[in-house]
Specification:
This protein is of the alpha/beta class. It contains 18 helices and 26 strands. A six-stranded mixed beta sheet has the order 3-2-7-24-25-26, with helices on one face. Helix 13 links the parallel strand 21 and strand 22. Helix 14 packs across helix 17. It starts with 8 loop residues before the first helix and ends in a 5-residue tail after the last strand. The structure holds zinc ion. Zinc ion binds next to loops. The site of zinc ion has 5 residues, from loops.
Length: 573
């Protein structure tokens, strides 16, 4: 953790200097301009959407070191241009602040880029075929992992079973996850290695799916997954580093300059530190380890957003419940299609006082809370705990978050506002789950699902993200989802609960400033403003003016993080 503890004085001096200079430039005193250092980078002829209400649109931006020093017209940049300045002509294309994905599983995402791809398998047969093909290429002792399968894309939409894949995988253990991460399918060999049989009871917060004879089918829900994962070998350091390096390059190619890594392993943070020391950490990371490890951060006395510009910790990720797709999100009333089932509170909530105690401890230490809650009763239970903390500890700038905030009870929108809880939401989930959510929870509850507009109407701040690898990392798909709400099956072209659509400006703001606020970094990034970090993206089309349907096809031309080019579609760096 050595690197995390370095307080970067040089940066503070720079930013003071830069802010001072910018103020002076505003006065446009020519004699002062002569003494000004040349910018390292100037982007001209751009359509810049700054996400800064003081100057929402601009034509050009100048960067010195890792900071923006001027934003304005092309001619405003003349005073900053010197012989060493690199000038980029944006060709009248759109520039935005770099995207900040408020909820990713970064190492899993990077690993997924190399794993078997099951998400777009359109049938159980195709699913089985792809696993068989992977098995033929898999060495002895290795596992087949990942996959992100989605049985709702099959006809009939039935959960897979181990029998489907056992024939091709007799010697190779398989643990392929459902795309939402709340269910995994094990083959017969993996079930055997994990010691899961007909006699194994369901663990608290989990379900072993069984056939009519009580035999495990191979599907394990929520906490039951841990019984399998404990026998899956952990990735080696080199494998982990490889996944993270893949994820960093992939993020840059999509214009993502900051990510907030939910429930990382400490070994992931160690890799980030290693890359930081080597100058290879090209995406800014805020890491929120599981709340089960709360003591580790409290005992070293750190608070929220502790660290440097590229790597911070000081937040904790908690789980209230499961997911809608796995029918484990926790609701007040049963699922419409499963009358006996209201879902599950997570194992961290057994009993709820366990969660309350951990959260009280975290809050007393000044750590931030980011709590996964999907069902209306799961969300309510967390808001109850948040209220109790305010009663016990008084008010403060805590920036508590509820991750997903998916299915809201009517009366809880006001509680979000009152407690100033941030809704950390993933619009792509809306156009994905929107295919089938009404069948599972009915129209009334679905009307308060991914209710982005209602949150804004209540003065609740949004932070946007993807939940990658659960959903694609590409910000264009997130923006497309937020502004169209057109479900992936093409059945709601005018939008699924269209009254909840965001405007493109609102979506961009939530994905840049909103996400920066959610990690206590809105003073450093999230807008193209003088003094802030030069994290920017140049797009090949104008997301603000094109037909919203076309937003999903927009590509990134260049990405800069701290003024450094981290991606160039033309291959230059
Ligand atoms: Zn997640």
């Amino acid at each position: 953790m050595r690197t995390l503890q370095i307080s970067d004085c040089r940066l503070q001096i720079w930013s003071t200097l830069v802010l001072g200079l910018t103020f002076a430039v505003g006065l446009s005193t020519p004699c002062f301009a002569q003494g000004k250092p040349a910018a390292d980078l100037i982007i001209r002829n751009a359509k810049i959407w700054t996400v800064d209400s003081v100057r929402p649109e601009a034509e050009a931006v100048a960067v010195l070191g890792d900071r923006i020093v001027a934003v304005g017209s092309n001619s405003d940049m003349d005073a900053w241009q010197g012989s060493t300045t690199r000038v980029v002509d944006a060709g009248n294309k759109r520039v935005l602040p770099g995207f900040n994905d408020a909820h990713v599983h970064f190492t899993d995402g990077g690993a997924q880029l190399d794993q078997v791809e099951l998400n777009d398998a359109a049938s159980a047969q195709e699913f089985a075929k792809r696993i068989a093909e992977r098995a033929a290429k898999t060495g002895k002792g290795e596992w087949i992992l990942g996959g992100d399968w989605d049985e709702t894309k099959w006809t009939p939409a039935q959960l897979p079973t181990h029998e489907l894949i056992d024939g091709a995988t007799a010697q190779i253990p398989v643990a392929v996850n459902r795309y939402d991460g709340h269910m995994v399918l094990a083959n017969a060999l993996a079930l055997k290695l994990a010691g899961i049989t007909a006699k194994t009871p369901d663990p608290p917060g989990g379900v072993i799916v069984r056939d009519e004879h009580g035999n495990p089918t191979g599907c394990l829900k929520d906490a039951a997954q841990d019984m399998l994962f404990k026998v899956v070998p952990l990735p080696t350091h080199d494998q982990r580093r490889h996944s993270i390096e893949r994820a960093l390059a992939y993020s840059a190619s999509l214009g993502v300059t900051s990510v907030q890594h939910m429930n990382p392993e400490y070994a992931d943070i160690a890799v980030y530190n290693e890359l930081l020391d080597e100058g290879k950490l090209t995406v800014r990371i805020y890491a929120a380890p599981l709340i089960t490890q709360v003591d580790d951060q409290t005992k070293i006395g750190i608070k929220h957003a502790f660290g440097g510009l590229y790597l911070r910790i000081g937040a904790l990720k908690a789980y209230a419940d499961g997911s809608l797709g796995s029918a484990t999100a926790y609701f007040f009333e049963p699922f419409s299609d499963q009358p006996g089932n209201r879902g599950l509170l997570s194992d961290e909530m057994h009993p709820i006082s366990l969660m309350r105690d951990r959260m009280m401890k975290a809050d007393a230490a000044g750590l931030q809370l980011c709590t996964h809650a999907i069902g209306d009763a799961g969300i309510s239970a967390i808001l109850d705990i948040y209220s109790e903390i305010v009663k016990a500890h008084g008010s403060a700038d805590r920036r508590w978050r509820i991750e997903h905030a998916q299915h809201m009870a009517e009366h809880d929108f006001g509680r979000f506002e009152e407690l100033q809880v941030i809704a950390s939401v993933q619009p792509y989930h809306a156009i994905d789950d929107g295919r089938w959510a009404i069948g599972r929870i009915g129209r009334d509850r679905a009307s308060r699902t991914y209710a982005f507009r209602t949150f804004l109407d209540h003065g609740v701040r949004l932070a946007l993200g993807t939940d990658w690898s659960v959903a694609p990392l590409n910000p264009m798909l997130t923006l497309y989802a937020a502004v169209t709400r057109a479900t992936l099956d093409g059945k709601n072209p005018k939008g699924w609960f269209p009254e909840q659509k965001l405007t493109i400006q609102e979506a961009i703001e939530a994905y840049t400033m909103g996400s920066a606020y959610a990690e206590f970094q809105d003073h450093e990034k999230g807008s193209i403003s003088a003094g802030k970090l030069a994290d920017m993206v140049l797009l090949n089309d104008d997301v603000l003016t094109i037909d919203p349907v076309k937003i999903r096809d927009v590509k990134v031309l260049k990405t800069w993080a701290g003024g450094k080019l981290t991606y160039d579609a033309e291959g230059n760096k």
